[in-house]
# Entry
Amino acid sequence: MSQKIKVKLNDQAIKSSDQQEDKRAVFETNQLNLWYTDTHALKDINLSIKEKEVTAVIGPSGCGKSTYIKTLNRMVELVPGVRTTGEIKYKNRNILDRNFRVEDLRTQVGMVFQKPNPFPKSIYENIAYGPKIHGIKNKKILDEIVEKSLRGAYIWDEVKDRLNENAYGLSGGQQQRLCIARCLAVEPGVILMDEPTSALDPKSTLRIEELVQELREDYSIVIVTHNMQQAARISDRTAFFLNGEVVEFDETDKIFTNPKDSRTEDYISGRFG
Amino acid sequence: MKYVDEAVVEKRMKARIRNNSILKFIFLLSTLFGLVVLAVLLIRVFSQGIAWLDWDFITGRLSTDPDRAGILGAILGTSWLMLVVIPVTLFIGVGTAIYLELYAKPGRFQNFIATNISNLAGVPSIVYGLLGLTIFVRALEFGNVVLAGGLTLSLLVLPIVIVAAQEAIRAVPQFLSEASYGMGATKWQTVKKIILPAALPGILTGSILALSRAIGETAPLTVIGIPALLIPFPGSFFDTFTALPMQIYYWTLDASLVSEYAYLAAATIIVLLVLLFLLNSVAIFIRNKFQQRY
# Structure
């Protein structure tokens, strides 16, 4: 009994001494460089992405922010002529290692894309797709996963009566939440979001932002955004990318109230980008 | 100073509008040319053949006597050919397209293959006949049987099927396959569950159009050596056979000896046209039924 209390006290002590250090890193990026054929797109990236936090990646177009998060699930390899050096450690294993199976990685690191991209199938089949490819065949279990995932993405009430209708009958915002639900169905630890609201109207954007707030309880989220207010509203930490480099990476509050680098200040105050 | 002088514009306007009308007329003529030729062809074929086309003609055996001659043997022969051509071309054609589009690493080798497939699509059909004769009939010693004819026709239409399937696969939006890969699906799972279903209408439409071409081919079959008068019906892949276009060819050839043969040829053409029409309808039906929206 006394030991338990002791442990608890100890825990609290750590928490209060340094709340941020307490969180484990899911991704440790060390000296990451990436080239598209001849273009040096990412230069010496060092970033640590913490568990159950929202990490925002901001920066002007073409600065490498999308490239960076696509490297985290190795989707970047779909582009011919990509080369990388350095390492990205996920749970202490280097995912850039050739022996690391991308299928394993992408099962644990889900992705939501810029444009909602449901499959041309029913709402149900969209969600059941992931579990099915991982070998779940039991209809009852699939039903449960579908409901849980749709509830998780706060779209269950809107679609529960039309699970067998084509997903393309939904509105853009609903489609994007469906895609998030589809991502949740595989039960990943990390969700990568590549400008998930840039194709949506303000109201749908707000709903997605609220959803991200809910999801941070259970998932580590990395979100690329063009919208600085969005980054300020929803993220715990922010990385500012410029010309393939990380200019500044810190707690979001610090980045937006007291940036250390003048370029960060220029960007967030709208002087360029 | 204004660069656009309204007087000049006004002066040229008449000529511009006239040119527009003239060209519109020329394009209309080009379109009508094809239509008129088709109409003449159909009218001639139907006026000659329709009187000879009855149930006995369709279900009858071949005969030198025009009144007793039927084309069931040729219909069966064509059907047997299709039983070879359809599975062979679909399997090899779609397989090749999947490999080239989704698995092969882009590079010189892939370019080389792709270019040559397009070249093969332009090789005259009689050359394929010679190839079939050399390989299937002689080297593999099949003889002039259904299998040899079917494989030869398969070679002939394979390039068309491959190119059609490649285009259909390429037209599947990348964001769909990305979504699948993003969830940890393997390439094959993505191909099977996402890419092929989306590409299916295109693949099938292209394939059926290619098959229509195979059905109508005569030259390669002539080279392989199809008997002019064959009474027994083919019952397996290793039987000799005749086919509808061959029948048309031989009857037209002998029309100088027996004038009624020309009418028999016309009646057979009607049957072949109806068959082609049915196949194309199937293609359109499939395309509409499996069309996905995204």
The two ends of chain B are 52 Å apart (CA to CA). DSSP finds eleven helices and no strands in chain B. The interface with chain A takes residues 105-106, 173, 175-176, 178-186, 189, 193-194, 197-198, 292-294 of chain B (CB under 8 Å). The mean pLDDT of chain B is 90.
